[in-house]
Design a protein that fits this description.
3 domains; Rossmann fold; alpha/beta; 6-stranded parallel β-sheet; globular
Length: about 550
């Protein structure tokens, strides 16, 4: 036991849990914490953002790509409020982000006496986008609450956690211990449920899999692929599940569905038809939300095995035959073990199943033709980007037509934790999340695909990238409009355009003003050449892709 301030105990507790990067902005309310960070700069890198929303999004991007909790540090009041958009994204994406903020001095806390940056019910505000929000009143609570946060990240759904600590408590001393790294076994499913699921999977004749975010959070891709190969089961993914199985794998059918009221074309979608023909569907790490499943035409499967980290999402829209509550990788390991000794479970070489195997390959070809028919240019653009990048490249999207009608449908992803897009649907995610991802995996290529509107939500983070040597490549598809909304006005509103035009700056010159690289291109061959140059650059690069008549017409 040692005597130390709450701020020092907080920082040492983060270090004990393996935290190596913190995103945020310094404040007069957090000076004690930053003074403690000063002595740990060899182990913890602080990346100073330009806006707290971006800090939360960087922590989210870092968490999604590394599998480790991301940490952001903000000031009380306006600072905490500014982080809400980023925390909301992390909440909907089930991403482990720990946000630490300050608040008024303990004797003034929640008394409405007019102290600086005072916020009414700040903890309740943070509670709307976190799974747990706590206030620290005594210095010895600091290491305890950090430990609780990391235990929750390991033992359940990985959603943000907020800790607020008054500015005066940060400097108070007490005798306390800094606990070691928390190690909690990932929760397994009930053995009886495993046996029931294994029986259904081995007996099924048309077995398919739907993989979601939970596969990435638990690092379950290898176990998922192993099961799919054993069962001969084709795999769909949600948008945030892309890469759970390599999308060039013979059993991958790509992303299921699309966007609400945003179909790629007027033809019948072969993915929807095939999914509704299955007699058994195993859902792994997806909540089967209305947006991603019900609104996309997915009907109740005859037999549904639903695997998720908690039971809350189960039976909302679809009744499960078997409920597997637990960590995706742990439960898939259990299932693979239960299937190994079971008769008829290995359908990869079972002649009875060859008709289904041939059908899966036919469906894969139908999906390819469907995309080329309904999204011809979008497919060509994404294939060209894919060909120019490494197999393990990380792609980060934003809310925009280039993702909704481009990357989500047409960009193939081959590795786990390599495709990051907004789950809540907030604009501005792309650049800061890409910066956070690059901080987490600096050795890998990170490519941000965004539109001109979303890019400007957090364009100031180009300065953060330059200052800290983070160099993602930012591809901005620039149509001088809120392109997604303009598409709606054209396709559903009869061309009654209002409020969807944008007057943009020269993005290349703006990038250069920050010390970044900027290039402007007007054709797909020029984009590929610019991307190849940017991937070799030693700083962040912005490629301004001019699409004056829209993304779908870019060639």
């Amino acid at each position: 036991m040692a005597r130390m301030t709450a701020a020092r105990a907080l920082v040492e507790s983060l270090r004990a849990q393996g935290v190596d990067t913190i995103f945020g902005i310094i404040s007069s309310h957090t000076m004690e914490i930053f003074d403690a960070l000063y002595d740990h700069q060899d182990a913890i890198r602080f990346i100073s953002t330009r806006h707290e929303q971006a800090a939360a999004m960087m922590a989210d991007g870092y968490a999604r790509v590394t599998g480790k909790p991301g940490v952001c540090l903000t000031s009380t009041g306006p600072g905490a409020a500014n982080s809400m958009g980023g925390l909301g994204e992390a909440y909907d994406a089930s991403s482990p982000v720990l946000t630490i903020t300050s608040t008024a001095e303990e004797q003034l806390y929640e008394r409405g006496l007019g102290t600086i940056h005072e916020t009414k019910n700040q903890l309740d505000m943070l509670g709307t986008v976190t799974q747990r929000s706590v206030h620290i009143s005594r210095p010895e609570e600091a290491p305890e609450q950090v430990g609780v946060a990391f235990a929750l990240f390991q033992g359940g759904r990985q959603r943000p956690i907020a800790i607020e600590i008054p500015s005066d408590v940060q400097g108070q001393e007490a005798d306390m211990n800094v606990p070691g790294a928390v190690r909690i076994a990932a929760p397994a499913a009930d053995p009886a449920a495993i046996e029931a699921a294994a029986e259904i999977l081995s007996a099924g004749r048309r077995v398919g899999v739907m993989a979601g975010t939970g596969v990435h959070r638990s690092g379950a891709g290898r176990e998922l692929t192993r099961m799919a190969e054993r069962l001969g089961a084709p795999v769909f993914t949600t948008a945030n599940g892309k890469g759970a199985i390599a999308e060039d794998h013979p059993l991958s059918l790509g992303m299921y569905g699309g966007e609400y009221n945003f179909p790629p074309g007027g033809l019948e979608d072969p993915r929807q038809t095939f999914a509704n023909s299955l007699d058994v569907l195993l859902v792994a790490g997806s909540s089967l939300s209305y947006f991603r499943a019900k609104s996309q035409g997915l009907r109740q499967p005859p037999q549904l095995i639903h695997l998720d980290i908690d039971a809350a999402p189960m039976d909302r829209w679809y009744e499960a035959t078997v409920r597997l509550v637990g960590d995706a990788r742990t439960v898939l390991e259990q299932l693979n073990g239960a299937l190994e000794g079971r008769k008829n479970s290995d359908k990869s070489v079972n002649s009875i199943e060859q008709g289904f195997a041939a059908e899966v390959q036919t469906v894969r070809e139908r999906i390819r033709k469907y995309k080329r028919k309904t999204l011809p240019n979008e497919t060509k653009i994404m294939e060209a980007i894919r060909e120019a990048t490494d197999r393990d490249a990380v792609f980060v999207g934003d809310v925009g037509v280039c993702n909704h009608r481009g990357a989500n449908y047409c960009l193939e992803v081959y590795e786990e934790r390599s495709y990051l897009i907004p789950a809540w649907g907030g604009l501005g995610f792309g650049l800061p999340a890409a910066a956070g991802a690059k901080a987490g995996v600096p050795e890998r290529q990170v490519i941000c695909i965004t539109g001109d509107g979303g890019f400007q939500f957090n364009i100031q983070e180009l300065g953060t990238c330059v200052q800290y040597g983070l160099h993602p490549v930012v591809i901005v598809f620039n149509d001088d409009a809120w392109g997604l909304l303009r598409y709606y006005q054209k396709s559903q509103g009869g061309g009654r355009y209002i409020a969807s035009d944008l007057r943009n700056p020269d993005f290349t010159r703006l990038a250069e003003a920050y010390g970044a690289r900027g290039e402007q291109v007007t054709s797909l061959p020029e984009l590929v050449q610019a991307l190849e140059r940017a991937l070799l650059a030693e700083t962040v690069s912005v490629i301004d892709v001019k699409t004056p008549v829209g993304f779908a017409s870019f060639k």
